Amino acid sequence: MVPFLVEEMLKANGGNYSKGPDWQPYVVSDGLLITGQNPASSEAVALELIKKLGK
Questions:
Q1: Cα 17 vs. chain centroid, distance in angstroms?
Q2: Consecutive H or E run containing 29
Q3: Burial 8-19 (b: 16+ CB within 10 A, else e)
Q4: With contact defined as beta carbons under 8 Å apart, do 36 and 50 qualify?
Q5: pLDDT in tens, the chain (55 residues)
Q6: N or C: the chain end with fewer CB closer than 10 Å?
Q7: End-to-end CA distance of the chain
Q8: Is 36 within 8 Å of 45 (Cβ atoms)?
Q9: Is the pTM of this model over 0.85?
Q10: Bridge partners, 30 (sequence order)
Q11: Measured between alpha carbons, how far is 44 from 1 in angstroms, rounded to an integer?
Q12: How high is the pLDDT of residue 52?
């Protein structure tokens, strides 16, 4: 059992946290950091990476 939620720790330390609907693709890009919410986000993360590499 994890004694805290990552979401809560991020917010408590000044981080920005966002999420999409459960089990749906959700991608956030900030500079060179690209993150996906879950495995369903893999394709969208790859497309975002390709877009960044093309610049």
A1: 9
A2: strand 27-30
A3: eeeeeeeeeeee
A4: no
A5: 889 898 999 999 999 999 999 999 999 999 999 999 999 999 999 999 999 999 7
A6: N
A7: 43
A8: yes
A9: no
A10: 33
A11: 31
A12: 95
